[in-house]
Design brief:
This protein is of the alpha/beta class and about 375 residues long. The chain has 13 helices and 16 strands.
Length: about 375
Amino acid sequence: MKFSKKAKALVLAAVVALSGATPAHAVDLAGSGASFVDPLLQACKAGFAKKTGHSYVYTSTGSGTGKKNSDANIGNFWFSDSAHTATTKRSTVFHAPIVAAPIAVLVNLPAKKDIYLSATTVAKIFAGEITQWNDPLIAADNNRTVKTVVYRKDANGNVQLDAKGEPRILRTGSKKIIYTLPKKPIKVIFRADGSGTSNNFTSWLNGVAPSIWTKKGNDAFTTAFPGNINDPKNIGRIVGAGQSQGIATLAAKTPYSITYAEKNWGDAYGLRAAYVSNASGNFTYPDSAATSAFLGEASQAADGIVTYDYSTKVAGAYTLGIVSYMLIETSYADKSKGAAVKELAEYILSSECSGLDPKLGFIVVDGQFLKKANELIARMNK
């Protein structure tokens, strides 16, 4: 069979197109760790492959496993929602805080109404001191006049800053809330695996209510728990499940339950996110503007580790915002792998990935955080 010159040209063009779509330098990467970032990483796979030709698989196993895998050099990159400061950390591994999002306090209640919880109330619920939904403190939180703060947003949905670096307020107001909660026992669901989300959540509890949540944050919720979690009164009422999807699944199946996870998991499983009080006395919702206003008050060390200011008086700050660290190598033995991981870090940090779908609830890192993250990424694969 003979081909015409036109047909040959079309075949040649197709071959060129295919070779261009899959570059010769394409690299397959493997990552593991925090379940917090999993929805974002899964959503960004196709865009990363299209842009670079590389591919990756990410196993959502929890921050504890991510740290262990980085210690053992299993895979090419790892994520943890809490800093890896153990002596087991290899000296060539460093932190790059490139993913940001809020942790939401999620509830499974029959009424489709907004719920408001002060930081003190949240601490007492998770510490086992408040055990009924009609507790007087919960009633007081949900039957009152609350102040509202609405920020001006930038193109990424983050809060706009003025010339002094302060959040720009679009408007303020107040509203009367009335919510009679049922006389039902509260079922508390926590992360049973080693979790950076648990570390951040329990660190927040200790930061905002230290007289109630008396222990420092820890990847293990049971270790951070301020009392005896195995007390008979807690058995069956305070229960654990593995990974963010696991606790969201269990909470969705458990009426009158409360848990904590990235807001996206609540949206996926029909759980409502609470408005939570901050140090200014306002109740704020876990959206991008309120969370970015809080993260803008955080400080970042030379090694990338972030310290949060839970006592910030920024009026509309949602103080349960966190960053997730990509644990990456200073120097990769396989330079092609290292170059691909560097491209991945840059892609995740960009609005192409982190701003891909606002419904996922992740925040596009900007300002000083972005500058610092780029400085850290530049250290890779030397």
